Structures are given as C-alpha cells and as structure tokens.
Amino acid sequence: MTEAFRSFVIFAEMRTGSNLLEATLNAIKGVTCFGEAFNPYMMGWPDKDELQGITREQREADPMVLYRKLMERPGHLPGFRYFHDHDPRVFDRIIEDRTCAKVVLTRNPLDSYVSTRLAWETNQWKLNETETPIPAAITYDGTEFREMLTAIERFQRRVLHRLQVSGQSAFWLGYEDLRDAEVMTGLVHWMGRTDVARVEPARDQVPQNPRELADKVRNFDEMQDDLQQMDPFMLRRVPNFEPRRGPSVPGFVAVESGRGLMHMPIKGGPQGVADWLGRLDDLQSGFTQTTLRQWKRKHPGHRSFTVLRHPLFRAWSAFDNLLTEAPAEIRQAMRDVQRVALPADADLPGLSQQKRLELFEAFLDFLRRNLNAQTTLPTSPYWASQSEVVAGFARFVSPDMILREDRLTEDLPALIDAAGIRNPRLQHFKPEPMPDFLRQKPLLQAAKQAYLRDYIAFGFED
Questions:
Q1: Could you give the CA distance from residue 204 to residue 211 in angstroms, rounded to a whole number?
Q2: What is the chain's percent helix, strand, coil content, to nearest 5?
Q3: Is there a contact between 461 and 312 (Cβ–Cβ < 8 Å)?
Q4: Tens digits of per-residue pLDDT, 150-162?
Q5: How far apart are CA 400 and CA 415, in angstroms?
Q6: Rounded distance between C-alpha atoms, residue 81 and residue 21, angstroms
Q7: Which H helix or E strand runs over 390?
Q8: Distance CA 432, CA 406 (A)
Q9: Is beta strand 54-55 parallel, antiparallel or unpaired with respect to 50-51?
C-alpha cells in the first residue's frame, strides 16, 4: 500500500511546460515547487545563487543539504523540477523515496527542440499575456536534435525502469494536459490534496510560439527530409531477450611485461591467445574485481583486449564443446526437447563429418531460439552472443581494443607496441582459420539468424 506523499518531483525537460505546471501548483496553499532546484547552473530559477538559505557552493559540496532543506517540511507539500542533466547525485534519493510523488511531464520532442532553440535565439523563456512575443525562426540541425532526443529517451527509460523495479507508479502528463482543469485537479488529488475542490491552470503564462512549424523553421523542407530518415517506431530494432551477462573478471589473464597486458577472453573464441601471452611472462589469472583494480593501479599505461570470432566458427566451437565437454543432462535435453537429435553419448566420437554438419544445422536453429528466450535451457557462455559478452565486460571495465581473429596477425603488433612490449616472438601468432566445410550457404544463413546482433554490432560478413 502506497504511503501518503510528503513531497513531489516533476521529471521534465526544457520547453515541456514545466514552468506552467509549477505556477499552477504554487497557486495552491500548502504546495510549493522550488523550480529547478538542482540545475547546476542556477538555484531554482535564473539569476539565483541561493535557495532557502543554501548557497550554490553548499549545494555543490553536498546536494543533500538542499534536498533536506526543501523536502522535510511537515504539513507542507514541497517539490521541484528535475531534468535529465540536473545533479545526478540526488536521483537515487528521489527515486527511492516512496513518499515522493513522481510526476512525469512530456511533450512532442520536435516541438520542445524548436521551442528551445527559439528561446535561445530570443532570450525569451516565459511569456506573460502583457508581453509581446519576439518573432524569430531557427535553423534545424539534425545532429543536434538526435543528440537531444537520445539524452531525453535514455533518461525517461531510466526513470521508468527504476519505477517498475521498485513497484512505484507515476502521474504522466502531456504538454496539452497543462491547461485542462480536470486533469490538474486529478493530479493534485492523486498527490493527496483532496481538500482542494478544483484546480484552475495558471493564467499568467501564455504559449510563446503558437505558429505552424513551417513558420518557425527556416529550413523546414530539409527538416522534413531528415526526419523521414528516423525510425520512431524502431522498425529496424533487433529484439534482445538474451540474459545480461556479468563482467567475467575471474576469466581474465594478464602479464607484467611492458606496461602490463590483459586478455579478456570470450568463451568459444580463438584458442591459443593465453599461450601466446605466456611466451612473454608468467600468466596471472583468478582475478576478482578488487584484485583487478589493484593490478590496474600497479600498471599505469596497461592495455587490455578481447578477440572476436566469426559467429559461425564460434557456434561450431560451442557445438564441439556440447558434444565433448558439456554435462550429459544438457545433451539429453537436446535430444528430448530441443529438436537436436544427438546420438547416444557412446556414439558421438564416431560421428562422420557429414553427420556432424547435419546436427550442427539443427544446433544453430536451437541457438536462434535460445538467444530469443524461446527455450528452457540457460544461455551458455560458450554460445552467448559476443555483443552481450562484451557488454558484460563493460559493466565493470571495457577492453581497450576489440580485435578480430582473422586480423590478429595485422593488429597484434599495434597492441604490443601500445603496451610497451618489445618482444618480436609475440608478433608471430597464427590464428586458426575457419574451416572451409563450414562455408555453406544454409549454415551461414542460420548463423546470421541466430547472431544477428553480432553481425550488426561488429560488421561480420556472411
């Protein structure tokens, strides 16, 4: 059961109508919105360097000083507006406080973008009915618009996800809702102020640019052409139901030579890289996140790398692991449920290459279903997509270089040089080529269906 709200936050962005919403709420006795309290460039409102007795310097040193000052007001309902680029140090405190009502205000992002650019050009950020709007037009910049859109969408997804995992809900508002008295009344009642019979939207602010976009954008035709290239419904998005992977730190291996060199291996990837490193020095392994940090501090200028393998070749390695090293119950599940008709374990060593290839094609179909969460078997690290494995690394530390197996001979010298290693023996690593018998069109197509994300992310060729 939700506790009674004791405060509120308005998650919004520039030019979404948050000033109007603030004015509406501030007209209610016992409700106060303290502007953009955590905007790094001002204290609540433009040209303010102090808020409720707290200076910018004090807020910079510890934002919680201002947060407590604003929010801990018994008998009052305080709040503020919070945008994606406001002080990130207070976000967790806001989102975790179940007594803080979350209001999410959105607007058509193109309208917000044009309105923001107009405000910058005219320096007119709010318009009262007694003031005269300053006529202006902007030049649309596609790169700038995409950057703004990406930042806002990322923030909104973050807010939504945190609300979902904590079992909270928010009150969602659109720009057009802000002048609807019934919606405003519903908002205030939802926040707990049911003693307020009706809430009238603030009247002291009027729309600044109620013109058609064609009149506000100089290069309107160019803007239309650019927007047609966007994909608002993400029609080309590759669905990803694969479980997130951890950083796999215990599998990392390193040597002390030079400035330090560390390999972040991908299971099912190229063989022999650890042996190649071992030619230089004793291998260190068995890292924890703590000991890895210590190793990095001890080796300034160190380099780290991982090596990708063609998805079809890696799937073949995973298939070989399944036949020779995987637990027997996994093979039995393949026979009983997963449509991969493996012979009995005793007969596996005697399989002909042709029979192996037939079973391998069925295994590739299993991989497609497994990576799409359509099977009950967990995703093995031997056949997890390489893009997800690398993303798992990045949740702790990203590799300096992502190499490809078929280019190791050309690319390893640059890596060795960057690590300050002067040992010509290390330049003679001969990667294992993908067997020609795998280069069959049905197998190549099946591998691409299973590992489409890898093909797109890393540019693998069919």
A1: 20
A2: 45, 10, 45
A3: no
A4: 999 999 999 999 9
A5: 9
A6: 10
A7: helix 386-394
A8: 8
A9: antiparallel
